[in-house]
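Q: Start with the shorter request: fold the first protein.
A: Done. Sequence, then structure:
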Amino acid sequence: MTSAQTGTQKGTQKGTQKSSQKATQEVRVKTREKVREKTREKILRAIQEKPGITTTELAHEIGLTQKAIEWNIKRLKEGGVLKRIGSDRGGRWEIPLPRPWRLRRRPLSPS
């Protein structure tokens, strides 16, 4: 085998490794997104059942740390999915409903 052939084989192996690493990274990102989505769904479900629930109670109920709950709540608030009404101690959570589609009013046609 010549040194050129050996170099080509090494180049092919490196290319295969890079594409494999990229695919693995893409799977990790997708998995992470799915897990976050499910976690946020659990948080929203718990808040629907008990709007006055605390982050400590959420953490205990869902099985995450309080910091993880706070991180997810922050993202939900930034996305407009969750809103805090009232104070931190005596307030409650609200999940704003999506605005209904506005229907265009068409002028009545003369009969």
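Q: Next, the second protein, separately.
A: Sequence, then structure:
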Amino acid sequence: MYTLISVLVVTVFFLSAAIRILNEYERGVIFRLGRVIQAKGPGLIILIPVVDKMVKVSMRLSYRHGRRPPGRHQHGQCLCKGECRHLF
């Protein structure tokens, strides 16, 4: 009886460590023993729990205001008038 319960507990922990879910705007980079294996897209990702590691990368664009006051600013070769905005 105790053996069955312990096997079920280990199986649940194994599956929770092996399954990852990525959103539409995320990608996962899979590392196996420190080396890059591949990048996987959104959806259900299955990993080998002890060997694989996944790092989530957000593909969303980040938009923020610049810290400079409105006026004339030079960014490289471009001269901008108005408020600075950065798109990453």
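Q: Describe the second briefly.
A: The beta strands are 19-22, 26-32, 35-40, 43-46, 52-58, 63-65, 71-75, 78-82, 85-87. The helical segments are 2-18.
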